[in-house]
Design brief:
- It is found in: Cytoplasm.
- It catalyses: N(6)-[(R)-dihydrolipoyl]-L-lysyl-[protein] + NAD(+) = N(6)-[(R)-lipoyl]-L-lysyl-[protein] + NADH + H(+).
- Keywords: Cytoplasm, Disulfide bond, FAD, Flavoprotein, NAD, Nucleotide-binding, Oxidoreductase, Redox-active center.
- The protein has 13 helices and 24 strands.
- With about 475 residues, the protein is of the alpha/beta class.
- It folds into three domains: about 5-145 and about 270-340, 3-Layer(bba) Sandwich (FAD/NAD(P)-binding domain); about 160-270, FAD/NAD(P)-binding domain, CATH 3.50.50; about 350-455, 2-Layer Sandwich (Enolase-like, domain 1), CATH 3.30.390.30.
- Strands 1, 2, 3, 4, 5, 6 and 19 form a seven-stranded mixed beta sheet that branches. A five-stranded parallel beta sheet has the order 8-15-9-10-11. It has a five-stranded antiparallel beta sheet with strand order 20-21-24-23-22, with helices on both faces.
- Helix 1 links the parallel strand 1 and strand 2 (about 30-35).
- Helix 1 runs parallel beside helix 8 (about 315-330) and helix 3 (about 45-65) runs parallel beside helix 6 (about 180-195).
- The longest helix is centred in the first third of the chain and has 25 residues, at about 80-105.
- The chain is globular, with a radius of gyration of 23 Å.
Length: about 475
């Protein structure tokens, strides 16, 4: 006999487990179905373990700069297996914490593969057999995986996706990274810092192509200064695999050149995990492996929702989590507000860090805004100089007519922490006047946020 619930959540990544916990808080009887590991890709093979590895690279980089800070350090080296072990330990700790949170909130967890067999009905293949569960509401939160292009498929040895890059079989000596989005550039930054001869190939006209062009250009200069080779408007057409080496055929400027590498990381986007779920059979529409939804994550089939990466861009864990809360509120009959993509911050944890929210300068102009733009460099900030992190900038974009904060873009130390100030500003519909009248603490990196706003209105003090 099938178990009956108020809400079934398929997938226990950031969106799924948050939806389940929020639903339980609202008094719903909740079932979570997960086929692999609680916490999903983010906690196990994405956001968290990559940040742990990048932290190790950051400390390693700082150790080499010890003399600048009046310190001495000899015999500086790294132990890659130990770096990876720490990263896996951090991921394991947080994944275990998700299990505790679900149990604390009395959510039923079933480990297995789920298929929606009919409206309100889900069949789960487990190690013990098949279980049937029913609920009026089903939330699909199965996430996504790395996209693999024909001829460039990963093999775990010479060609890696993010999973192999997080648990490497060796330290690359000569590394090719295909794709310069957040995933690609973070891995490039990590391995380059540890000494790999790193080349990044990007098909678009600039690295970090979703970021503001000025920020991308600044970041590129820093990457090149660190020894990376950046190839833009370039495409890897073919990979010839040999013993311990890969020959990449790279097309750039209409010509194909061959380069040898011992390791390739493919970071060319993601595809939604939609296979085997029975979505199309019950009437859910798909578009290029992603579920088509409205602003409230409704699929068009009554009682079926899709949240997180499977529901499309932006592919960010914090967006998925808030969609989970929104959907649980809807199901429980509470007021719910749609998540607005243009007010979600994007963060890239390379060195230097990159963070942004809202419209780029080009997008604001394209939308017809008359804009005011302010900039402030890290070199003008006392805290940045004291930290030894004087390379960076903060850029803000305002509607010249209303003073609305249209966008904010940053590159430099700790900008992934600072960006939230502007995110709150956009949520509260803050104007330039509000930001200019806010007192920012001194000495902090956040003062640059203030100065950038002042610069947009010709009132900057320290530049």
């Amino acid at each position: 006999m099938a178990q009956n619930f108020d809400m079934i959540v398929i997938g226990a990544g950031p969106g799924g487990y948050v939806a389940a916990i929020r639903g339980a808080q609202l008094g719903l009887k909740v079932c979570v179905i997960e086929r692999e590991h609680l916490g999903g890709i983010c906690l196990n093979w994405g956001c968290i373990p990559t940040k742990a590895m990048l932290r190790s690279a950051e400390v390693f980089h700082l150790m080499h700069r010890a003399k600048e800070f009046g310190l001495s350090a000899d015999g500086i080296n790294y132990d890659l297996p130990a770096v990876v072990k720490r990263s896996r330990g951090v991921a394991g700790q947080l994944s275990g914490g998700i299990g505790h949170l679900l149990k604390k909130n009395k959510c039923t967890v079933i480990m297995g593969d789920a298929t929606i067999t009919a409206k309100g009905k889900v069949s789960v293949k487990t190690e013990k057999g098949t279980e049937e569960v029913t609920a009026k509401n089903i939330v699909v939160a199965t996430g996504a995986r790395a996209r693999e292009l024909p001829g460039l498929e990963a093999d775990g040895d010479l060609v890696w996706t993010y999973k192999a890059a997080l648990d490497p079989v060796r330290m690359p000596k000569k590394l090719l990274v295909i794709g310069s989005g957040a995933i690609g550039i973070e891995f490039a930054s990590f391995y380059n810092t540890l000494g790999a001869d790193t080349t990044v190939v990007e098909v678009m006209d600039r690295v970090l192509p979703v970021e503001d062009a000025e920020i991308s250009a600044f970041a590129k200069k820093q990457f090149v200064k660190q020894g990376m080779k950046i190839m833009e408007k370039a495409m890897v057409k073919q990979l010839d695999r040999g013993k311990g080496k890969v020959t990449a055929h790279i097309e750039v400027g209409g010509k194909v050149e061959k380069q040898e590498f011992d390791t390739v990381i493919s970071a060319v986007g993601i595809v939604g995990n939609v296979e085997g779920l029975g979505l199309e059979e019950v009437g859910v529409k798909l578009d290029r492996t992603h579920v088509v939804t409205d602003e409230f994550c409704r699929t068009g089939v009554d009682g079926i929702y899709a949240i997180g990466d499977i529901a499309g861009a932006p592919w960010l864990a914090h967006k998925a989590s808030h969609e989970g809360v929104m959907v649980a509120d809807l199901i429980a009959g509470k007021p719910a507000h749609p998540v607005k993509p243009e007010s979600i911050a994007g963060c890239t944890y390379c060195h230097p860090q990159v963070a942004s929210v809202g419209y780029t300068e080009a997008k604001a102009k394209e939308l017809g805004y008359d804009i005011k733009v302010g900039r402030f460099p890290f070199i003008g900030n006392g805290k940045a100089i004291a930290l030894g992190e004087a390379e960076g900038m903060v850029k803000t974009i305002f509607d010249a007519k209303t003073g609305e904060l249209l966008g904010a873009h940053m590159v430099g130390a700790e900008v992934t922490e600072m960006i939230q100030g502007y995110v709150i500003g956009r949520k509260l519909e803050t104007t330039e006047e509000d930001l200019m009248e806010t007192v920012f603490p001194h000495p902090t990196l956040s003062e640059m946020m203030h100065e950038s706003v002042l610069d947009a209105y010709d009132r900057v003090i320290h530049m």
